[in-house]
Amino acid sequence: MKEVQSLRENVVNELVHWIEDNLEGDLSLDNISKRVGYSKWHLQRVFKKSTGTALGEYCRRRRLSKTALLLRLTKKDIYEIAMQYGFDSQQTFTRAFRQNFKLTPHAYRRAEYFDMYGLLPPYYYTEQESSDLSIINLEPLALTGHPHLTQCSVENGECFSHEFRTKTITSRLSSLAVAPSRFYGLVDYTRFNEVDSHYKVSYTVALERDMNRSFALESEKINIEAGRYARFTFNGDVSGFRDFVSKIYLKDLPEKNLLRRKGFDIEIHTPIFDKIDVEYFSCQYLVPIE
Question: Domain spans of the chain?
Answer without folding.
Answer: 2-111, 134-288
